[in-house]
Structures are given as C-alpha cells and as structure tokens.
Task: structure prediction
Amino acid sequence: MQSSFNTDRVLASPGAVTSPFARALFDQSIALFLGGEPEAARMILHEVVKATVGFELLAELTNRSCANLRSMLSSKGRPGMDNLSSIFRILRDWLHVRVDVQVLDAA
Result:
C-alpha cells in the first residue's frame, strides 16, 4: 500500500537530522525488532522520532494522532506492521539512509 505523504517535503525539511548517532539508534531499533526484542526497539524508536522528525510531523505524515504514535512507540505499544513500516520508511528518508537486511547462518 502506497502512503500519501510527500517524501520530498520530509527530505527538504530544515530540521532533518542525519547525525551518525541518530542513524546508529535507528539501526539498533531495527535490529532489536528483528531480533525479537520489540519493547526495547520501540523505546529506542520513540527517542529517534523525538530527536529527528518529531511526533507532530510524523502524525501528519502517517495520518495518526501524536498521542496514538507515542502510545505505539511506548514500551507496551502495539504499532502493527503497517504503522511500523510507515514509521521506518519516514525515518529512513529523514535520515537519508538505506536499510538492508541480511540473513546469516546461526553460529
């Protein structure tokens, strides 16, 4: 499903944060989600949103309320795959990164 938000607007935002620290936190949140630690992942993702795009703009871009997004990204939140995918996509574009996932043999 294609969302209706304007990626160009996000990328052109004067508040766009591309710091290595924000990128590392974003990377860590994705790794934690995929590694089966959703509570820690949501808490880190909450901080990444707060420090980058912000909940107000994220609410506008996802057609969700700020309160709903904050709840989704709380330790007990339940964001759902569609919402999580949208949040990841917005942050990916905001941070000017590409997300690659690699599956490796278990040690």
Remarks:
- The helical segments are 7-11, 20-34, 38-51, 55-62, 66-72, 80-95.
